[in-house]
Amino acid sequence: MSNKPLEEGRGKQNQQSANKDVDNVVKDLHLTKNERKELHDLLKEDYLGYQEILTRAKERFPKRHSEYKDGEKDRW
Q1: Candidate from 16-20, 40-44, 71-75 with smallest mean pLDDT
Q2: According to the 3-state scheme, what is the secondary structure of 17-75?
Q3: Burial class (CB in 10 A: 0-12, 13-18, 19+), 34
Q4: Cα(65)–Cα(56) distance, integer angstroms
Q5: At 68, phi and psi to the nearest 5?
Q6: Each residue of 21-66: pLDDT tens digit?
Q7: Helix axes 4-29, 33-43, angle to 10 degrees
């Protein structure tokens, strides 16, 4: 019995979760469509969590995130 379908399922879940986290960072930092694409290209296939993505986005777009309180809007 192969574990391949299970592994593919986990990869898809990780990818979907990472995409949601990218969407939240884009929203929180008010990134443009081009900046979102650039962030996506920067992350490549790394399925990172929200905080890691936020950190990389702040490093890549320092001017953009400094325009907002602490770099992001309140999420809650």
Answers
A1: 71-75
A2: HHHHHHHHHHHHHCCCHHHHHHHHHHHCCCCCCHHHHHHHHHHHCHHHHHCCHHHCCCC
A3: exposed
A4: 11
A5: -120, 150
A6: 999 999 998 899 999 999 989 988 778 889 999 999 999 988 765 5
A7: 140
For the chain, the farthest-separated pair of C-alpha atoms sits apart, in whole angstroms, at 54
Q: Please state, in angstroms and rounded to a whole number, the distance separating the CA atoms of residues 38 and 6.
A: 31
The number of residues making up the chain comes to: 76
Give residues with Cβ within 8 angstroms of 67, minimum separation 6: 30
Amino acid code (one letter) for 69: K
What pLDDT does 46 receive? 78
